[in-house]
Amino acid sequence: MTITATRNDRRMYMIMNQDAGTAMHATAARRRLVVGAHIALTVASVAAWLGAVHGVSVWYAFAILALLAPWCVAMGVINGSTRGLLQLRGHMLDERQLVERDRVRAIAHRITVGLLFAGAAGTGLATWLGEVRFDGALLFPALFALLVTHWLLPSWVACLRVQDDAPDEVEEALHGN
Q1: CA atoms in the 13 A half-sphere facing the CB of 27
Q2: Which pTM does this prediction carry?
Q3: What is the 3-state secondary structure (H, E, C) of 151-169?
Q4: Would you give the end-to-end CA distance of the chain in angstroms?
Q5: Distance of CA 106 to CAs 45, 113, 146, Å?
Q6: What is the pLDDT of residues 70-127, one digit of tens each?
Q7: 144 alpha-carbon distance from chain centroid
Q8: H-helix or E-strand spanning residue 91
Q9: Disulfide-capable partner of 60 in 16, 52, 133, 165 (CB 3.0 to 4.6 Å)?
């Protein structure tokens, strides 16, 4: 069975492979900075969303709106640095990219399992040794934070794993020569 690329597939491929924002993710240091900023924006957005959901203050809704644009820009830089590794369909990727996508997903899965284990062990130890009782108030925020982490971790891992281009290509991207 042959799978042909649709017009939307080709459009998405063209968007993910544009050179317009290359300078923002040309070096490993810049990619680490973008991932760190995106993590911080994500944490702030999740906290604001949880505050808005629990009706603490109407200002949390405005905080979400203020965080949305920089979060989207940072996510776009992450997606651009990976050339759409996680956004493009499998038939649009070559064999090397398919292997890298599987590797990124496996690493992100291991990290998520580690976080789940740490959370379960910490909760169990606090209950057993500290005689702490957990009510349901923390369950929803914890599960929501875990869901967001599970969703975004592959993108963060993929961005951090991107290799720098050849030094002359990096210079060209940085200085626009």
Answers
A1: 10
A2: 0.80
A3: HHHHHHHHHHHCCCCCHHH
A4: 44
A5: 26, 10, 17
A6: 999 999 889 888 887 777 777 777 888 889 889 999 999 999 999 999 989 988 888 8
A7: 15
A8: none
A9: 52
